[in-house]
Structures are given as C-alpha cells and as structure tokens.
Amino acid sequence: MCGIVGYIGHKEKKEILLDGLQELEYRGYDSAGIAIIEDGTLKHFKEIGKLENLRQKTKSYTSNGFGVAIGHTRWATHGKPTELNAHPHLGEYSFIIHNGIIENYQEIKNELTAEGVQFVSQTDTEVIVHSFENENHTAKTPFEAFTNTVKKLEGAYATLLVTKAAPNTIFFAKSRSPMLIGFDGDDVYFASSDSPVIGKANEVYYLEDGEYGYAKSGEVKLFDANGERKISKQALATDKVLAQKDGYRFFMEKEIYEQSRVMSETMMGRVLDSGIDFDEFDKSLFDGIYAIKICACGTSYHSALAASYLFERIAKMRCDIEIASEFRYKEPFLTDKTLFITVSQSGETADTLEALKMAKRAGLKSLSICNVDNSSIVRESDAAILTRAGIEKGVASTKAFATQAMVLWMLSLYIGQLRNTIPKDKIEIEIDAMLHTPKALVVEDKLHERIHRLSKRYLHGHGFFFIGRDIFYPLALEGALKLKEISYLHAEGYPAGEMKHGPIALADSELFTIALMPKTLLYDKMKSNVEELSARDATILAISPETFELADDFIQTKHANHPMVEFFEMMVVTQLLALEISVRLGNDVDMPRNLAKSVTVE
User: Fold this and answer.
1) What DSSP element (H or E) covers 290?
2) Known catalytic residues?
3) Does the structure show a pLDDT above 70 at 241?
C-alpha cells in the first residue's frame, strides 16, 4: 500500500525523504508529501501525482542542521487523491503520516467534532493528529498524549508523528502494517520496508504489532502493552530489488502471501458486527434497481462470475455477467432498472471502459469496483468501491482477484440487507465467514512446500482441466487462467457436471485434472464427476478437506463451515500451484510473455 519514510539527524533531510519515497514507488501511490521541523519551525509540502511533482514543488527548499522529517506516498482509501487528502496531515502544531486504516475513525471524529475540532480532509488519518493535540492539552508530556492516542486506535496503522511540542522527536506506533527503524550512529531512519534505508542505515529493527515509542538523536525508546522493551538490532540487507520483494523470489509470490493482510484492509470499516456498510455511496443508488449487470475482462470477469451466484442467492436479485469485449458489440438490451457494475484492477481496461460508457449513454446507474482511485473507470462511474489491494506488480493477478471477490461478496450482502432478503441470523453467518477469510488466506510453510514438491509431476502432458461446481466453477476458470498465463501450458476451466457433455473425451493418463472439492457445497456431486474422470484414467489432483481415495495427488484444505472460506483457501492453492510449475519451467513469473498488466487497447 502506501509508503513511509522518516529521519532524525543533521543530514539534508529533503533529499533523504524524496529518495526514500522514490524507493517505495513500487507500492503504488497517487499523492506524496513531506514535513520537516528545524529550529522549532515546521515546514511541509504536498502534491498529487508523481513524486516528480513534489520534487519540483520543493526545488528551492533545502534543510540544514539538526532536525526531524517525515514523508509519505498515499494510495487513496478514504477520500479522493487531492492535496488536502495527501499526507502529512496537519493539526495546529503537529503533523502525522499513516499507512493502514483506522476502523473506528468515524467514532473518534464525531467525538472531536463535538469538541469543536475542524477537519479539512476526508481521510481516516486526520483523526490521529487531532486526537493527539486534544490529549496534549491535559497530558503531562507529549509522549503521554501520543500513548493515549494510540490506545484509542482500532485497525491497522504504521504511523509517525512530529510536533512543535517536542520538536526534536519522532513518535511512532505500529499495528498490522509494516514499519522498521534504521540506525547509523546517531542518525535514526524509519521506513515501510528495507529499500529506502539501504545504503543509509547499517542496522535495523523491524517493529512488532502493538509496539510504539519515540526517537531522538541517537536514542530510541520502545514500548508495548507490558512496558519498555529492548531493541534487538540486526544487520541490514544490501539488495534493493530483493528488499522491494521482502525476501520473496517474485512479486507474484509476495502478493500471494500479502492476500491475508490486504483482505483485512478491504473489509475495514465495511464489515461491521451488524452487517455491511459502504460510506462510498448512498443507499439511494439502489432505488428502483431490480437487476444487476456486471461487465469485466479476464480475471475480473471470473470474480464477477463467482459473485453472480451470491447476488442471486443472498440478495435475490437477477445478476447477468458480460465479457466486456463481447458486450460492446452485441447490441445489448439495457433498462434503467439495471445497475451496471464494472470490475477492473487498473481502472483503465479499454473494453470495460467503453462498455461503461455505453451503459451511461443508455441511462443506467453505474458502480465500479476497482483498485485504483481516480482511474478512468472510477471517474466515469456514478460510484466506486476501492478494493484496497495496493499495487500489484505481478502481471498475473492474485490479490486483486481476491479483493474483488470479497468486495462483491460484501456488496451482495449489503443489497440483501437493503431488500430484506436475508434474515438476521444469516447475516451473522455471512459476517462471521468474512471475518475468518484472512486466516484462510495465510500461506503455511507446510502447504507451500507440499505444492512445490507436487509441481514437478505436472510439467508435461497434453493439458489441464480445472473443474468445480457453483462458485468453484469460476474459481476453476481462474485457476486455469493463472496456469496458462505464467506456465504457458494449456489449461481449461469447466463446470464439473459438463465434463460428460464432450470434454471427457480427452481424458487419459496425460490429462491432469485439478478438482476443487469443497465439503460445504455439492461435495457428493463433485465426487461423482471426479470418479467419472478417474475411470477414464485421468490423472487427478484433488483439493479438498476430505481425503479422496481415487486421487493420484491430494492437497488437503481445512474444514470450514462456509463455501466462501473454502473458496479463498482453494484459490491460494491454485495460485501457488501455477507459481511453482512456472518456476520449475524456468519462466519469468512476474512478466509472462505477450501480456501486459493494464490492457488499454481493444
């Protein structure tokens, strides 16, 4: 997601911040800013767009002598990418930068507003700086005020605060969002990952969840819920590209492992105890709507297809799915009683954008589900829900697909609430399943090692069938697409019940069948379909919580009580399988041939 840098020392601070933020560009951002305190004077600069815009804005400014400095690149979650919404955020005499999402920001904001505090941005971050200054009125020290503020926060945060109340100090706190402290003599650095401090610091400490403290020249004090902690420094790696990958072999691998964390961010502030809430739009968007049409391409089409089962099952609303490149030329019948939803990772997918424009001309209300704020599709839509996946460098989409599927699941429940098509006890079941999803997305070493060992058996043969039923059919399509994209092996996804209507003619020992066999949904039907293939000597890889005797290979998933939890766990297995097969074949996993991350041509 966003990037953080910080520095305490005598060196020129502007360049340290800008160079550090440059190293974090791979995370994606839509605005950037810096704040510096020297000789008790606070300076700050913010700009939307690329870092070059901020460099130009600060061209005539240099910092001299001892001081403290913080910088940030922002990927919009709450509020549009504007200069007001860019970090750092200012109180009366303090600045804050923050990665993550404060789940209870609205509650804190309401309390502060009632006390006369005025907010200038749409962000959740701004509540931290105002809460600190409010606490500082009565606290004995600024650090006590900061400590009291951190205790109020719920959600994910890596945050740095500088204030004229303690002009030689940086206050810091970390929970569920990465941050480290770098050391070089008396100089102290902060960053979201290693790359900004490589070549500057020689030792590093990686903050743990729940840790907070303050730093001065040559001094860092670290605390957690049990009091002061000792800092255990370690040597800093020297490879910047490896640092960007956080030690993973490929960005795609890193992004598969990130899915558990970004899924939590996707749900923050939206999945509540009582149901689903989106503050991105008013519920009147659904007034007079009796059907949904979703338009997308590639991986986004698969997430939409999975969601179609949920919209009809949960929201009791007709849901039609269209491939954007086909929709554009079929002379579709469109009515204003249909909500037109577009799904796109980049928000620049040409076919999807043109389909949206067609729907707008026909007078349909529109909603986009996208990972990039201020993208063309988001700007063209009446409303938008950001998936909050962060930048995805691997061309083959992983975490973007996962977060799209989650947003669509949440949206189906939201509409079900509006239409009263789902009873309260069912809402509670769905919410509980959603909250268990991040755990289902955690990649265990044992699982990854098993898939690595199995992958050597799937490098040849004349193709793959990925098969599933219900929501696992779109997942089969997605699993086959992942394998095709990065391994260049032929793979197809099929509804398991359709195999006997033609495709089973291909079955033999050199046909690899990846069978998605969830226990919570149509297991016996699925088992029967796989038995048909096994009888024709197809090689079966079963993915299931239930041991399957006829499988040549078996990957056991956990027993879950909801199909969507199984969906996400099996999704990870198919992603890792594609990754490991591709690695064994010696392919460039992150940049597969003939493909582009954002398809901006027809």
Assistant:
1) none
2) 2, 597
3) no
